[in-house]
Write a structure and sequence with these properties.
2 copies of one chain form a homodimer. Chain A is of the alpha+beta class and about 160 residues long. Helix content of chain A is about 45%, strand content about 20%. In chain A, strands 2-1-3-4 form a 4-stranded mixed β-sheet. The radius of gyration of chain A is 18 Å and the shape is globular. The two termini of chain A are about 35 Å apart. Chains A and B meet through helix 1, helix 2, helix 3, helix 4 and strand 4 of A and helix 1, helix 2, helix 3, helix 4 and strand 4 of B. Strand 4 of chain A pairs parallel with strand 5 of chain B.
Chain lengths: ~160, ~160
């Protein structure tokens, strides 16, 4: 095991601990690394910023992308003190790093009172079976916008 | 069908269209409604802000939570011009609205070149089967922070 892996993960765990001590939010921290250097950091700030999306990984990804001036984390590695929830794992897939290292997992998070495992279970179900009421309307009108996108010549794909 | 549902969804679709016309990002819009009024709006700004998390729903949720001064969307409904990707559906579960209305779906998004369906498929797999390299290290050290959280008396749960 690369010794640096432990250094970076210990930084993510330290951010989680500091966030709890400061009462910023839940016990989660994350860092983004490129070429052996930390280029993005984040810790959970949901309750202190009234932002349910302010998870450690989301904040670290946004921080790193700002530094790189890019919407992609090419060649980067993400270290998270806990297995990302579906929101954060989705964000990680969209940002396309080369690897993800985790310490805790969704069972540890559930044991501490967080919904990660519940959300993983729900979003794998068909819409009609999910706890959240989900209903489709006006699909054809949305498809018109997709058609405009597909024909747009100067679009920037991601 | 409640007529207002169509009004709100048409606004979400209009935001998607305007975002494409302005070259802000992908063809996606969303609104958050409470007590019959729009309290949050968003459209995709991934490529124009170098933020892979700047999806319509994430922006609309953050906007609404700022207005409500809360990290929960109690009693709210979300209208999205397309089925949310896993990141956004995760954000919706964390924000706990009472319902989600969608127009397009993940197949429409895939047909337009977006990874929503791919990410849904990946995050349902075990870590070792996912395209993204995911590896666990230092789990015990992360668990120490969860233990601190569990014993913290003034924590704010979410």
């Amino acid at each position: 095991m690369n010794k640096n892996h432990e250094v970076f993960m210990r930084r993510a765990i330290e951010l989680a601990r500091k966030g709890v001590e400061a009462n910023n939010g839940g016990p989660f921290g994350a860092v983004v690394v490129k070429d052996g250097e930390i280029i993005g950091e984040g810790w959970n700030k949901v309750t202190s910023t009234n932002d349910p999306t302010a998870h450690a990984e989301i904040i670290a990804i946004r921080d790193a992308c700002t530094k790189l001036n890019s919407f992609q984390l090419d060649g980067c590695e993400i270290y998270s003190s806990c297995e990302p929830c579906p929101m954060c794992l989705g964000a990680i897939y969209w940002s396309r790093p080369k690897a993800l290292y985790i310490a805790g997992n969704r069972e540890d998070a559930a044991d501490a009172g967080f919904d990660d495992r519940f959300i993983y279970d729900e979003i794998g179900l068909d819409h009609e079976d999910q706890k959240l009421k989900i209903q489709t309307i006006l699909r054809e009108e949305a498809q018109e916008v997709f058609a405009i996108w597909k024909e747009k010549e100067d679009k920037i794909e991601y």
